[in-house]
Design goal:
By secondary structure, the protein is mainly alpha-helical. The protein is built from 2 helices and 2 strands. The chain has one domain. Helix content is 65%, strand content 12%. β1 and β2 form a beta hairpin. The chain starts with a helix and ends in an 8-residue tail after the last helix.
């Protein structure tokens, strides 16, 4: 008997687990950064955050008590969601830390 086919099935199962867990953690991280952008821009505009809802199985949201500039706060999620990861990536490359490609 050749033990190699069993090993291949095990390897594939671990690869699938790695991909699914990486995607799940990345999705949650993206939601945290996005909602942070809304909360930050609400604070900048004089608004007040009532709560931030983060759920791994649904879309996240930021509920505001007071929102004097809705368009400004809405754009905060996108702007911070794009700028913060690029800033971290650039800093990581600048400092020549290992693993920058991840």
């Amino acid at each position: 008997m050749n033990p190699r086919p069993q090993r291949t099935i095990q390897d594939r199962a671990f690869q699938i687990l790695l991909v699914v867990s990486t995607m799940s953690i990345s999705w949650l991280g993206m939601m945290v950064v996005h909602e942070f952008g809304h909360a930050l821009f609400a604070w900048f505009s004089g608004g007040a955050v009532a709560r931030v809802v983060l759920s791994p199985l649904a879309f996240s949201r930021t509920d505001l008590q007071r929102n004097p500039h809705p368009l400004f706060v809405a754009s905060g999620g996108v702007l911070v969601g794009e700028a913060l990861p690029l800033l971290v990536f650039g800093l990581w490359r600048l400092l020549r830390w290992p693993g920058w490609y991840i």
